Amino acid sequence: MKTIMKWWAGYLALFFTITGCTSKVYVEKDDTADFGRYKTFAWVEKEGHGKQTIQEQKIRSAVTTELERTVGWKESKKRPDVLLSYDVLVERSVRQNSDPVYSRPFVRTFYNPYSRRLFNVYYPSRFMGIDNYDVPVKEGTITVTLTDARSEKAVWQGWTTNEVNNRNLTSKEIQSAVRAIFRKFDVAKR
Known about the structure:
Elements: H1 2-21, E1 25-29, E2 40-43, H2 54-71, E3 74-75, E4 82-102, E5 106-112, E6 117-123, E7 127-148, E8 154-164, H3 171-183
Parallel strand pairs: 2-3, 2-4
Antiparallel strand pairs: 1-8, 4-7, 5-6, 7-8
Helix pairs in contact: 2-3
């Protein structure tokens, strides 16, 4: 019975760790758009951009994989139904942390004159309050926009923000962000 309880405690700890690390995803969509008629997509080339960076290639690859795998759309250069674009923003921000503050435990020695002995009294630490402080962090936001090729009107946009370690996003951060965004892309699955 104890081993079963340990397994359940382990599974719950893992579940809360995984769900606690995920970031929120936000989605905006055009309610008048008919997503059932979209079958192909193409990438919009950014102006003033000759060659793609490695980060841009990874973002495009991750989005293309998600659209082909989860939705079933195909990439097509000739007359696509949807035009894709993305935006990456890495900015400095501040996260507020709160830590409890406790007093130091101590021991006090007393003398008992009746028994002529010394005895120790242990005083445990006590809760003193909460220490609030700011921590500087970098946040990376990935935004994916789908535009109807015929009307040139944005029909769907999804974005998420995560804490990042440096100016450029890593492959793992890109893939997890894009996967999280396209989990909310349920309009084409109907």
